[in-house]
Design brief:
Layout: H1 2-9, H2 15-34, H3 39-44, H4 48-62, H5 67-79, H6 87-113, H7 128-152, H8 157-179, H9 194-214, H10 218-228, H11 233-258, H12 263-287, H13 289-312
Helix pairs in contact: 2-6, 2-12, 4-5, 4-6, 4-11, 4-12, 5-6, 5-13, 6-11, 6-12, 7-9, 7-11, 8-10, 8-13, 9-10, 10-11
Length: about 325
């Protein structure tokens, strides 16, 4: 891992993003040539790129993962009889779109990690070691949990969703409250503390299970917890984006094999999500930590409340 970090630090600013973006573009062209899709359906779904861009911007400024936008969005489209994607298809499509959007976001935040400016007062630099420790430690537990859940375990998804989103509302409210009270004038934490790494490891397995069921979970839990603990935005959002990217890429494999991905949706929304992932980082930095945390908390509360309402009617 040390050698990989040294190689990344040697790249000029922006080079990692353009290399990764080229790989994503090549992957999209490969899908265009090989995936089955109906041209007529592509034309009727003209609105999806807009959803992809907006969803990826929200997902990559917060680090919570695109499923927090795409799942309620596609569920709403089904309820309004615009596009009939079944729940398992919604999860598969969301993971495939996130493979583009969250990966681009992760590339942008990782590039920022190695080209950080001098921190402003009350802000702190992020050590690459802390960044990758969070991401790799969480993925070591969350990925096996996610992949096992996809293949072996069946849950009452409605009950899990209701409980998870109720918990998300509490975390979102806690984030807003801590931002404007205990963390208002306190310096950001400069180093990852062992107790926080231990908590993240405890969140990793349930986060992986939730990601298998809803395409969102582990990234949201990691980002929210680190935000509440008052770590720099780069660590909170960047590490969560990297975790969400790896989860989406790995989780999409099962859905491709199961035939649950509507390729027309991915072909339209995937490149748009990559664009949104590219735009997200400067938007997050422009907002600043306090406004970003407030908006993230408000979005999580609002989207979770909407999903609870949608599943209750």
């Amino acid at each position: 891992m040390v050698e990989a970090q040294s190689g990344l630090s040697a790249l000029p600013k922006g080079r990692l993003v353009w290399i990764g973006g080229g790989v994503l573009l090549a992957g999209w062209f490969l899908l265009l040539l090989s995936a089955p899709y109906a041209p007529d359906l592509l034309r009727s779904l003209w609105f999806l790129p807009g959803i992809g861009v907006i969803g990826a911007i929200i997902a990559n400024t917060s680090g919570t993962g695109g499923g927090g936008v795409f799942v309620p969005g596609f569920n709403a489209l089904r309820e309004w009889s615009v596009m009939d994607l079944q729940p398992l298809q919604v999860v598969g499509v969301s993971m495939a779109i996130q493979s583009f959007g969250m990966t681009m976001g992760a590339l942008r935040w990782t590039d920022r990690l190695y080209h950080q400016p001098a921190p402003a007062p009350l802000h702190a630099r992020v050590a690459p070691r802390d960044f990758f420790t969070v991401a790799l430690a969480v993925l070591a537990l969350s990925l096996p949990a996610m992949l096992s859940t996809q293949r072996l375990i069946s849950f009452d998804e409605h009950a899990v969703l209701m409980g998870y989103k109720a918990f998300s509302i509490l975390l979102g409210l806690a984030l807003i409250a801590s931002t404007w009270t205990v963390n208002l004038a306190r310096p950001e934490r400069e180093r990852l503390e062992r107790v926080d790494l231990a908590v993240l490891l405890l969140l990793a397995i349930p986060g992986g299970i939730l990601t298998a069921l809803f395409s969102v979970g582990v990234g949201e839990l990691v980002a929210l917890y680190l935000f509440i603990r008052h770590y720099p935005v780069l660590l909170c959002t960047g590490a969560a984006c990297l975790i969400s990217s790896a989860s989406a890429l790995a989780g999409s494999v099962w859905h491709v094999g199961a035939g649950t991905i509507q390729w027309e949706v991915v072909l339209l929304a995937g490149p748009a999500a990559a664009l949104g992932g590219f735009l997200a980082r400067p938007i997050a930095l422009w907002l600043g930590a306090r406004r970003l945390k407030t908006l993230d908390g408000a979005w999580i509360v609002a989207s979770a409340a909407y999903l609870l309402w949608l599943n209750a009617i």
